[in-house]
Write a structure and sequence with these properties.
alpha+beta, FAD/NAD(P)-binding domain, six-stranded mixed beta sheet, 10 helices
Length: 416
């Protein structure tokens, strides 16, 4: 069977690899000059910089099936998150005491005994054997769900910042069941960062494909159940798979548009180079005052705490979401970070900005289920995170659904 895959992100590459391993002839169309889609890594002045903030969750079952984690030379973030109240200069640690008992007392000091018990109860509801089970039932929004759990306002501020970063949705209208899913993933796996950046993940899949399978710099202008049109003409296929981001899918196949308006989830990072790191542990530093006037930085991380740079300098990456991310104001970000880290920020060199448009899909908050029901629209198969939920697990699960639907087996796991 001749199969066309439009889009060389992680879902499209998994579809292509699964089909090729089963003996089918596959062509992947990719408008960019390289594969990976939104999992993109840049080289800036000798430094490896991800476009947007990325970690890879080792608890995701699909990741263990498709990705050789050991080959990524990835290192794990700490099993905790630290928050900062910039105006007060206070920092608080929230850790997983079941996996890292040394964080139990610091966490209790940060949130109090009552919220500590609430965290423990939430943690105990998670199951490593089925991270996605909460997605099977309807749930309120994340904003409503956090309020219903009766966390103290100070704890809710930390959690709101955490989940705004995960969903890239400042309104936190994403379903709370998705927060449960991500909470489970954090509880039962590690958040790792590949040595060569997040694009090393899709590149690993692409290297397993036959030479010539992926046609980069080739944009599909239209698709049908049996054809793909590019600037070079129309090519016929037995099967066409659209593996593009949500907004591109809606443009190429309007019938796939949801009943609710498409909403852009936008993120940017402002990257600085520093002689010394502002903190030395591999942790995310969340802004408890995020969203207040003058507080546009959602969180800061220092990737060189995990993977030291060749020249001994450090990268300090500030993440923005929402309207402030559309046009990052480097000067304003630097001034804000002076409140976090003091005068050392004046000596930092601005390295670059990254911006990712439509970085995650938007779904109807009333939707529930692990996958969007429709796999086939106007004869075209749809895969990608917008056909499941906004995560690597969701993207790969959508690819696996397609392979199973056409009678192919999922390739043997590369990680046991």
């Amino acid at each position: 069977m001749r199969i066309a895959v439009v889009g060389a992100g992680i879902a499209g590459l998994a579809v292509a690899l699964g089909c090729e391993l089963a003996g089918h002839e596959v062509t992947v169309y990719e408008k960019s000059e390289t594969v990976g889609g939104r999992m993109k890594t840049l080289q800036e002045h000798g430094h490896t910089v991800d476009a947007g903030f990325h970690v890879l969750h080792t608890a995701y079952p699909t990741v263990r099936r498709w990705i050789d984690l050991e080959a990524l030379n990835a290192k794990a973030m700490d099993n905790c998150t630290v928050s900062i109240h910039p105006e007060r200069g206070r920092r608080r640690l929230l850790g997983d005491a079941l996996r890292s008992p040394q964080y139990m007392l610091p966490t209790l000091r940060s949130v109090g005994v009552s919220d500590g018990v609430r965290f423990l109860k939430w943690r105990m509801t998670t199951r490593a054997s089925d991270l996605e089970r909460s997605l099977d039932t309807s749930s309120p929004s994340i904003s409503e769900g956090l309020r219903s759990r009766n966390f103290r306002p100070s704890t809710q501020r930390v959690l709101r910042s955490l989940f705004a970063g995960i969903t890239l949705d400042p309104s936190l209208n994403e379903r709370f069941s998705f927060a449960d899913f991500t909470w489970s993933a954090m509880a039962h796996g590690k958040m790792v960062v590949p040595r060569q950046g997040i694009q090393a993940v899709p590149l690993q899949l692409a290297r397993r494909l036959k030479a010539g399978t992926v046609r980069c710099n080739t944009q599909a202008t239209s698709v049908s159940a049996s054809s793909v049109t590019t600037a070079d003409g129309v090519e016929e296929y037995d099967c066409v798979v659209l593996a593009t981001p949500q907004h591109v899918t809606h443009r190429l196949l309007p019938a796939a548009a949801d009943d609710h308006p498409l909403q852009e989830r936008l993120t940017s990072t402002v990257v600085f180079q520093a002689k010394a790191p502002p903190f030395k542990r591999a942790r995310l530093l969340l802004n408890e005052q995020w969203g207040a006037p003058g507080h546009s930085v959602l969180h800061v991380h220092v990737p060189t705490n995990l993977h030291p740079s060749d020249d001994g300098t450090h990268l300090v990456v500030a993440t923005l979401v929402g309207p402030e991310a559309a046009h990052p104001d480097v000067h304003a970000v630097a001034i804000e970070l002076e409140q976090w880290f003091g005068s050392q920020v004046k000596d930092w060199r601005h390295l670059c900005n990254t911006t990712v448009r439509y970085a995650l899909p938007h779904q109807d908050p009333e939707h529930h289920g692990r996958l969007v029901q429709e796999l086939l629209v106007d004869g075209v198969y749809l895969v990608g995170d917008h056909r499941a939920h906004p995560s690597v697990q969701g993207a790969l699960a959508s690819a696996e659904r397609f392979l199973t639907h056409i009678g192919l087996q999922i390739p043997p796991a590369v990680n046991g």
